[in-house]
Amino acid sequence: MNPGLIALIVVGAILLIVIGTIIAIYNSLVGLNERVNEAWSDITVQLKYRADLIPNVVETVKGYAKHENETFKMVTEARTAAMGAKTVKQAAEAENQMQNALGRIFAIAEAYPELKANTNFQTLQGQLQDCEDKIQAARRFYNAGAKELNTKIKTFPANVVNNMFGHFKKRDYFEVSEAEQAKIEKAPDVKF
């Protein structure tokens, strides 16, 4: 066999392996990116559902605690911020506000035994708790996907492929800041 032909076959095989590897890496990045997009979509669906429930909770509580206008304003502002969030960072900040506002609403409910016993309020509270659980699960799924994508686009050889095409960007985590986490864990002060 001709040495030139053998060299051509070896170079061709190496080239096919390199091209195949680049395609496989690129496709894995596409898959990870889409998984993160899907997870973000799950979060936004749950945040929207919760935002739709909040006016019902506020109206129910208003009937019992008419003088809590500051809390109702806080809830309304938090809901508006959550509905207007466009980025992961904005959504996380809005989530912090919402957690504080909901904590205050439920603290008010503790002060009104007849409100706590109200079937409509109990149903809404159950729906909100279910929604909060789903948001937390969606958030964990999103953060796991973001971590995997962020790691992949930083490691060799995927970073080389990503630099060639430049399609995939680092994703922010959907997390609560340490300062906000401390506020969430501390029960709100309710004064009448």
Structural account:
- Helices cover 81% and strands 0% of the residues.
- The chain has seven helices and no strands.
- It has 192 residues and is mostly helical.
- It has a single domain, classed as de novo design (two linked rop proteins), CATH 1.20.1440.20.
- The termini are far apart.
- The chain is rod-shaped.
- Helix 3 (88-110) runs parallel beside helix 7 (178-185).
- It has helices at 3-62, 69-84, 88-110, 113-116, 119-154, 158-165, 178-185.
Q: What labels describe this entry?
A:
192 residues, rod-shaped, mainly alpha, disordered C terminus, de novo design (two linked rop proteins), 7 helices, 81% helix, single chain
Short structural summary:
This protein has helices spanning 3-62, 69-84, 88-110, 113-116, 119-154, 158-165, 178-185. With 192 residues, it is an all-alpha fold.
